[in-house]
Amino acid sequence: MPQGNPTAVPNDGLTTRARRNTPVLAVHTGEGKGKSTAAFGMALRAWNVGMSVAVFQFVKSAKWKVGEEAAFRELGQLHESTGVGGAVEWHKMGSGWSWTRKSRKAGSELDHAAAAADGWAEISRRLREQRHDFYVLDEFTYPLKWGWLDVDEVVATLQDRPGQQHVVITGRDAPPRLIDAADLVTEMGKVKHPMDAGRKGQKGIEW
Q: Mean pLDDT, consecutive 10-residue segments, the chain of 207 residues?
């Protein structure tokens, strides 16, 4: 896309404005680092233009703290106090979804699968209600890969979502059905990583 212009314009009957404003389903997958980081960068852009942002983190433990979470919580408070940017919500499966307060941190795989199903049910409801403008479903490919959620049902819900709701999904091994449905797919490939040289993750780089 030279200079940000499409290489071809489809004969779909839409105006340039309508085509530009079509909601995006994006998938960040692959073995490399940066999938979630890129998604949170997009969320930052969305917040800056006044979109309401909701992040749903699957799989991660409640003990895992990421810098983006702290930053977005501050941005949410800034919006509440000054009206700048957009509203922000951040939810973690590992700490028990905030709307259920049910913690399954020490549970079995069945408990984690049930927690993932709870999260997806809530996201589906919010999509139907057009609750948010921009969703990050972080590490959402794993519940799909592990069979905790039905891929066809998830894809159908995402494709049928009303309004102008953007959704970004991260995680390795995105299923082909999801990739086919997405508007934007990026595969992160590792060339080098500090851990290859025995170096552990660093504050400010990994979290």
A: 63 65 94 95 98 93 76 97 98 82 59 93 98 98 96 98 98 98 95 81 72
Q: Please, what are the domains in the chain?
A: 21-188 (3.40.50.300)
For residue 163, count CB atoms less than 10 angstroms from its CB and return exposed for 0-12, middle for 13-18, buried for 19 or more: exposed
Q: Which of 144, 141, 181 is nearest to 161 (CA)?
A: 181
3-state secondary structure of 2: helix
Please name every residue paired with 61 in a beta bridge, in sequence order, or none if there are none: 94
What is residue 61's predicted lDDT score, i.e. its pLDDT?
61
Q: What is the pTM of this model?
A: 0.88
